[in-house]
């Protein structure tokens, strides 16, 4: 007899793999792991191992601590298969009885993936204290060949590891033999356990242990009534076991069956007098196996696909979490990190010198050598004058050093503003952004950043940067405009007039709105990095516009054009420097934060999620399609409908 | 009064003292957030302590505590000897707490929430000294949802002085009850009772073992409540452990023990609160320590920077050194020919310098001008309060704006991480820090100036020995003597006897020239000698300055807050030490059980006092 739901084995197996892949991909979302999620445990413990297996029933004896689970188990086994103890939470590991030959026809180990399977040597095995989840097994000749019986640890003691083990066994089981007593039938922990069992549609047999008959005859319907009402369990059979320690020890406890729900006539007839003890094993072997198996598997599938507690809820969780990341990312990028209105300009003197030098390099043939001679003579003649000047003025700091100092101040400005902004953002209290930003804002990381920036700033050869820029720009200029000679000739005249003011704005890009004034000069440096600079040239735009009209018009040699050109050089340099700082800040301050957020924000639409959804739909579709399983499909409900 | 009585009173007085000290501590305001949090927590704890103090002499409130079906109500009936609390097989039986009191007990005195319970009167002997509350169970409801047994239980527990914890063979390891007891046991004495002796086996050994991790367990009783009640109905005294339990309760809860029990509970509460506080503060302490370290590191690098700059400038200012040294030397020499020359040279130098150098351009030069003059100059400056000027000067020793801004940025980060009041570093505009920087520099220059003075004095003394002095005087005088001899010989002897011509200006001019040259050479040689080893000394001086403790700092307020917080923390530790010692003494001196320390306390204390 093969399992009635074999057709689901393949997709469920694939789903299991896909879900694990998804969990791996979703690690960035910092969600709690899969372990401990009821639907996932059902998937691993119940559906994956049992869907393709031959039909057999797993019966587990479950209940609170020290109420005689093992005693009942021993009665089913027909021998003292497991040790009992008057002390609480004695049983630490499940013990499993299997029919002879079962382990040859079934992959027994795969049935209980959460446990290390060990053969049982002596009855005391299950009492050992250990971190590992063990499961002890032995064959029992009296068992029907499609019945597996388990004794489990308790579900309510302070040894919470026992709960875990019992939960796993419950997920694997088809039939639960629930042991209740008058002290424990109403305990919260016990009820919680059976509430889950009811949701998974397990078949439940209730053994009400340690009853005092006949006094309790009047009470048990109340007790079981309360229990069933609060947990949603519909018991297949109800038995009462008397409080008889000696009988329990000697394995000859009587189990009296009671009708449930109690019929009207029962109240009048005192049935206890005519009671005969039932053999639990016989009753168990008379269960309708196929029906129960189908029921529990379907119950588990239903749990797996349940909108509220199943896989869809996990997907929803991923989606919501993704949105949180999206919000965090948007928050980070919605505000400019810093705006600096006065980035220092290169002194015109320096710029002019670079242009001259470049120009000198452009000369060819005899003009070049003549100029060289004149330059040398000029330098020789002016030497005494310069020497005296230096003497009087004291040590002259080179203009590039002055610029370097100014620039460092501007960088400090940026850093201060960025920190202030980030502090503000972390105080806004976005739960995702906050801890990440707080680690960036600590004093040690600040000191480190400053040191890194300072070192990097020291290493930069500003002169070389300037040279590079001038040569690039002028190279372009020469090919664009043949009258460049005129420009070079007149450059001295406008040097004083050109005073551009550049303001630089830093953004974290990638999400949300972005400043619209992205200066074209930055295209190549800024687009690559995630930190964006919007360069806005005060007056510069006007000048640039003026320059363009000048080019298009005839007055290509006009002073306005030259001024625009010169400003453009200056602005380009400023922007280059700002981009450099932004790059450093991105690498050393923000690190991979923007990328991480962006990555996490994309998980809900990722391939792994798609795959899981597909498989889920597939399984759902099949459930709905098979007409004989209306019962399941009604309470599964497809996620699209919700 | 007996010796034991005195000891008891002494212990009570200690409890009062501890309470007073905790109150004092909790009234402080700090800039460090954890201290404030702890103070708030302790104030709440003290609120509860206060309510205990009010009913110090009232009958003790004894409550049952245990899982459903563990026979709480049956036990109460057996204790009172009457069927008062409803007991039964349907679970849970008791939903509302039942308060049982002697007909003469004034319940208003106890401040009990009588609207939460059903009140029953009974004249049992045990009730003369106590009030008994039969509580609902903590384990049939899933959580502390409204109007559940658990919620009702939690409302009543803060008013209880003693809990009778009942359990059975089935339930003694139920997680729910064990957890709830851990929350409830703070501020209560405990009595442990295993019930259902008629049916169950004796598991007291195992139970005690499980309890001993968290509780002091002097005794565990194993009782059969139903039989005991029956016995009392028939007019007998209960036998077995129930009899023992009754004796125990009437002895331990007698009116003479009330104060002791309540004080023990007070210590329990205080200790729980203090332990939590110590936890809070210690958890955050490393961050504050980090800030402290950062402040110190800043400080050190500041000194290093200033010292390096000072050293460089001292090296450059040779002229000033010379002048100071010469002044010092001539002062020790007093009047003599060579010292007059030195004075003259120095005076001329000063005259020239006064045009340029006397206006000390930088701090090093100021330090060189000497302590007294330097201070005067500085005071004059600081009175002017010209930010520009002080800034300019600060730059000389390297305390420029960039440096200050960097410091501020880093320290602000540390302040944020240490959860100090952020207003402490919130950029109060640069000017304030600049002012502080000036103070730091002033402090530093004060040190430097006295260091320089010491160096100069030392060099002056070293070069004022009789040999050096004699040598230079001799060399100087010998030239003068020679010239005088020539003039004298010419005037007195040659012009009279040999009729030679009197020396003309042809002689005096070269003589003067040579005098100047000779004097100049001597002065140069001498000053050179003075300056010998100066470089080494300047290095030594700057090293010395780096190591010296600085009084002024860039962030004096922060420094102060750090120190205060460290003191508060230390005090908290002391208080906790005291409370746990007291707790230990009390726990071992009474036969009643109690909780050992656990960490689930804060929530309880807060929820309890909040209700």
Features:
heterodimer; A: 642 residues; alpha/beta; Rossmann fold; 9-stranded mixed beta sheet; rod-shaped; B: 611 residues; disordered C terminus
Q: Please tell me the overall pLDDT of chain A.
A: 76
Number of strands of chain A: 12
> How many independent structural domains of chain A?
2
Which architecture name of the domain at 61-280 and 590-610 in chain B does CATH use?
Answer: 3-Layer(aba) Sandwich
- The CATH class name of the domain at 61-280 and 590-610 in chain B reads Alpha Beta
- Count helical runs of chain B: 21
Which regions of chain A are unreliable across 5 or more consecutive residues at pLDDT < 50?
A: 268-273, 493-499, 511-557, 629-642
> Main β-sheet of chain B, in a few words?
9 strands, mixed
Envelope shape of chain B: rod-shaped
What is the percentage of strand-forming residues of chain B?
Answer: 5-15%
Helix content of chain A: 55-70%
Helix/strand order of chain B, N-terminal first: HHEHEEEHEHEHEEHHHHHHHHHHHHHHEH
Q: Measure the end-to-end span of chain A.
A: 37 Å
Shape of chain A: rod-shaped
CATH-defined topology of the domain at 61-280 and 590-610 in chain B: Rossmann fold
Give the topology, please.
The complex is a heterodimer of chains A (642) and B (611).
Chain A: H1 9-25, H2 38-50, E1 57-63, H3 69-77, E2 95-98, H4 102-105, H5 108-111, E3 116-119, E4 134-139, E5 147-151, H6 160-172, E6 175-180, H7 188-199, E7 203-211, H8 220-231, E8 235-242, H9 245-249, E9 256-258, H10 264-268, H11 280-285, H12 289-305, H13 311-334, E10 338-340, H14 348-362, H15 365-393, H16 399-428, H17 433-441, H18 443-459, H19 462-480, H20 484-495, E11 501-508, H21 523-526, E12 531-538, H22 540-552, H23 559-590, H24 593-601, H25 607-625, H26 630-636
Parallel strand pairs in A: 1-5, 1-6, 2-4, 3-4, 6-7, 7-8
Antiparallel strand pairs in A: 2-5, 8-9, 10-11, 11-12
Chain B: H1 3-26, H2 33-54, E1 60-66, H3 72-80, E2 98-101, E3 118-121, E4 130-134, H4 149-156, E5 162-167, H5 175-184, E6 189-194, H6 204-211, E7 215-216, E8 220-222, H7 225-233, H8 240-252, H9 258-316, H10 318-333, H11 337-355, H12 363-369, H13 371-384, H14 387-396, H15 401-417, H16 429-462, H17 466-498, H18 505-531, H19 534-547, H20 556-589, E9 593-595, H21 601-610
Parallel strand pairs in B: 1-4, 1-5, 2-3, 5-6, 6-8
Antiparallel strand pairs in B: 2-4, 6-9, 7-9
């Amino acid at each position: 007899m093969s399992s009635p739901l074999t057709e689901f084995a393949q997709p469920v197996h694939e789903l299991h793999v896909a879900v694990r892949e998804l969990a791996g991909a979703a690690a960035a979302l910092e969600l709690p792991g899969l372990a401990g999620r009821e639907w996932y445990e059902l998937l691993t413990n119940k559906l994956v191992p049992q869907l393709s297996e031959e039909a057999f029933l797993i019966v587990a004896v479950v209940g609170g601590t020290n109420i005689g689970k093992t005693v009942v188990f021993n009665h089913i086994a027909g021998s003292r298969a497991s040790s009992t103890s008057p002390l609480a939470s004695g049983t630490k590991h499940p013990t499993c009885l299997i029919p002879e030959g079962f382990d040859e026809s079934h992959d027994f180990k795969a049935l209980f993936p959460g446990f290390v399977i060990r053969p049982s040597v002596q009855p005391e095995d299950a009492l050992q204290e250990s971190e590992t989840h063990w499961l002890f097994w032995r064959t029992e000749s009296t068992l029907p060949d499609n019945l597996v019986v388990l004794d489990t640890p308790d579900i309510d003691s302070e040894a919470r590891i026992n709960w875990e083990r019992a939960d796993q066994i419950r997920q694997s089981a088809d039939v639960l033999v629930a042991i209740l007593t008058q002290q424990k039938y109403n305990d919260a922990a016990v009820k919680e356990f059976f509430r889950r069992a009811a949701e998974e549609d397990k078949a439940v047999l209730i053994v009400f242990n340690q009853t005092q008959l006949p006094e309790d005859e009047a009470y048990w319907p109340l007790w079981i009534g309360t229990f069933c009402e609060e947990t949603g369990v519909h018991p297949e059979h109800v038995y009462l076991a008397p409080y008889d320690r000696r009988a329990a020890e000697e394995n000859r406890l009587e189990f009296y069956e009671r009708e449930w729900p109690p019929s009207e006539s029962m109240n009048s007839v005192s049935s206890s007098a005519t009671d005969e003890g039932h053999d639990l094993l016989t009753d168990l072997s008379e269960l309708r196996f196929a029906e129960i198996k189908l029921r529990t598997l379907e119950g588990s599938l239903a749990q797996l696909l349940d909108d509220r507690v199943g896989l869809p809820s996990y997907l929803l969780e991923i989606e919501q979490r993704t949105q949180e990341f999206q919000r965090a990312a948007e928050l980070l990028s919605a505000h400019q990190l810093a705006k600096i209105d006065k980035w220092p300009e290169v002194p015109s003197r320096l710029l002019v010198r670079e242009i001259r030098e470049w120009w000198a390099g452009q000369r060819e043939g005899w003009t070049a050598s003549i100029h060289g001679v004149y330059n040398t003579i000029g330098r020789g003649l002016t030497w005494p004058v310069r020497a005296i000047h230096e003497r009087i003025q004291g040590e002259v700091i080179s203009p590039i050093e002055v610029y370097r100092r100014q620039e460092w101040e501007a960088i400090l400005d940026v850093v201060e503003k960025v920190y202030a902004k980030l502090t503000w953002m972390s105080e806004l209290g976005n739960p995702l952004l906050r801890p990440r930003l707080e680690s960036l804002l600590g004093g040690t990381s600040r000191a480190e950043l400053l040191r890194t920036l300072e070192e990097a700033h020291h290493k930069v050869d500003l002169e070389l940067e300037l040279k590079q820029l001038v040569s690039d720009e002028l190279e372009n200029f020469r090919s664009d405009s043949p009258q460049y000679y005129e420009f070079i000739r007149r450059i001295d005249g406008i040097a004083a007039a050109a005073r551009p003011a550049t303001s630089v704005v830093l953004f974290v890009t990638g999400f949300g709105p972005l400043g619209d004034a992205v200066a074209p000069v930055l295209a190549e440096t800024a687009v690559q990095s995630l930190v964006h600079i919007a360069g806005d040239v005060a007056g510069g735009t006007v000048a640039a516009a003026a320059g363009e009209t000048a080019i298009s018009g005839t007055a290509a040699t006009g002073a306005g054009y030259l001024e625009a050109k010169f400003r453009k050089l200056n602005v380009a340099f400023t922007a280059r420097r700002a981009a450099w700082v932004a790059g450093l800040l991105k690498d050393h301050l923000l690190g991979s934060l923007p990328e991480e957020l962006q990555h996490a924000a994309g998980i809900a639409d990722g391939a792994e999620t798609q795959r899981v959804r597909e498989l889920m739909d597939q399984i759902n579709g099949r459930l709905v399609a098979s007409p004989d399983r209306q019962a399941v499909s009604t309470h599964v409900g497809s996620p699209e409908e919700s | 009064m007996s010796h034991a009585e005195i000891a008891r009173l002494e212990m009570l007085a200690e409890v009062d003292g501890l309470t007073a000290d905790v109150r004092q501590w909790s009234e402080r305001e700090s800039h460090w957030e954890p201290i404030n949090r702890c103070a708030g927590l302790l104030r709440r704890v003290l609120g509860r302590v206060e309510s205990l103090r009010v009913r110090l002499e009232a009958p003790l409130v004894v409550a049952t505590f245990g899982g459903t079906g563990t026979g709480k109500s049956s036990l109460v009936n057996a204790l009172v000897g009457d069927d008062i609390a409803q007991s039964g097989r349907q679970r849970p039986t008791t939903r509302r707490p039942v308060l049982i009191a002697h007909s003469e007990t004034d319940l208003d005195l106890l401040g009990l929430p009588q609207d939460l319970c059903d009140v029953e009167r009974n004249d049992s002997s045990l009730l003369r000294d106590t009030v008994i509350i039969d509580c609902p169970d903590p384990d049939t409801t899933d959580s502390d949802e409204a109007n559940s047994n658990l919620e009702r239980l939690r409302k009543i527990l803060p008013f209880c002085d003693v809990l009778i914890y009942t359990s059975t063979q089935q339930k003694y390891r139920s997680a729910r009850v064990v957890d709830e007891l851990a929350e409830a046991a703070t501020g209560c004495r405990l009595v442990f009772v295993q019930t259902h002796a008629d049916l169950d086996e004796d598991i007291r050994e195992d139970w005690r073992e499980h309890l001993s991790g968290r509780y002091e367990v002097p005794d565990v009783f194993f009782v059969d409540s139903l039989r005991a009640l029956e016995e009392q109905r028939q007019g007998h005294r209960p036998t077995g452990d129930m009899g023992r339990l009754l004796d125990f309760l009437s002895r331990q809860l007698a009116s003479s023990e009330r104060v002791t029990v309540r004080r023990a509970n007070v210590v329990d509460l205080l200790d729980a609160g203090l332990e939590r506080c110590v936890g809070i503060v210690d958890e955050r302490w490393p961050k504050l320590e980090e800030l402290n370290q950062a402040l110190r590191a800043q400080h050190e690098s500041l000194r290093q920077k200033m010292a390096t700059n000072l050293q460089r400038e001292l090296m450059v200012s040779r002229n000033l050194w010379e002048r100071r040294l010469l002044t010092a030397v001539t002062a020790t020499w007093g009047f003599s020919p060579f010292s007059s020359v030195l004075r003259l040279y120095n005076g001329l130098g000063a005259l020239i310098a006064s045009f340029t150098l006397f206006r000390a351009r930088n701090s090093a030069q100021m330090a060189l001008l000497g302590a007294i003059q330097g201070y005067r100059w500085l005071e004059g400056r600081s009175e002017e309060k010209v930010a520009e000027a002080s800034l300019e000067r600060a730059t000389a020793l390297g305390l420029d704006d960039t440096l200050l801004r960097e410091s501020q940025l880093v320290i602000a980060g540390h302040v944020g991480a240490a959860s100090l009041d952020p207003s402490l570093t919130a950029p109060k505009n640069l000017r304030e820090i600049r002012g502080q920087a000036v103070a730091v520099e002033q402090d530093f220059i004060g040190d430097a100036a006295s260091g320089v003075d010491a160096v100069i004095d030392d060099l002056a003394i070293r070069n004022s020995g009789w040999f050096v002095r004699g040598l230079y005087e001799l060399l100087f005088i010998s030239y003068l003597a020679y010239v005088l001899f020539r003039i004298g010989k010419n005037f007195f002897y040659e012009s009279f006897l040999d009729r030679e011509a009197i020396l003309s200006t042809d002689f005096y001019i070269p003589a003067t020239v040579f005098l100047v040259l000779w004097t100049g050479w001597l002065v140069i040689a001498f000053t050179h000698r003075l300056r010998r080893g100066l470089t080494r000394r300047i290095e030594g001086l700057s090293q010395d300055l780096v190591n010296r403790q600085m009084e002024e700092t860039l962030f004096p307020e922060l420094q102060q807050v750090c120190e205060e917080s460290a003191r508060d923390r230390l005090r908290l530790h002391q208080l906790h030490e005291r409370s746990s010692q007291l707790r230990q003494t009390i726990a071992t001196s009474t036969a009643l059980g109690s909780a050992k320390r656990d960490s689930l306390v804060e929530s309880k204390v807060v929820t309890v006092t909040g209700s």
